[in-house]
């Protein structure tokens, strides 16, 4: 699909200013829709790509070669997307429908335990394939009809131990389940962002971010 490179990748601008914040996307070509943004890349849809999405990496970020390797190792699993094609800065992936857990909290949509169980099973599958599932959190997990999916696997070749999913589950069972049983409530965006920033600060104080950055440097130096 060389037309994706000429029509989308060569025209769009995607910049990552902070590796812990979403990328900035400008100059989206006509006919393309921005579906979501991560810290290193953005995802787009197009009417001619039925059931597929295009993930484009920021101009100033690496990692696409590693992500291609991850999808090849994962194979076909119901809780992950599937790699269809790729180019120098983009991946064509199977589209996974649903909302992120972050969006569910924001909109007051109940997150059932089956979603958590699906993600646990997906993590175990990745480990069995020789991968190291990392950076799994509320913005990288989506749910649909009670099923859970991991939408970002770009860090699964990294060597550090990531506590994010373990911490997420702890808060889910300790606070979310008891509170949501009594009343359904939405958490405002500003509060979720403050929680996200506070958690990043906690990771910094705990030394995790330094370990992560050190591992990143060592992994990409090979």
TrEMBL record:
UniProt xrefs under SUPFAM superfamilies: Protein kinase-like (PK-like)
Regions annotated as coiled coil: none
Highest taxon above the source species: Bacteria
InterPro entries assigned: Kinase-like_dom_sf (IPR011009), Meiotic_Drive_Suppr_Kinase (IPR052396)
Record-given protein name: Serine/threonine protein kinase
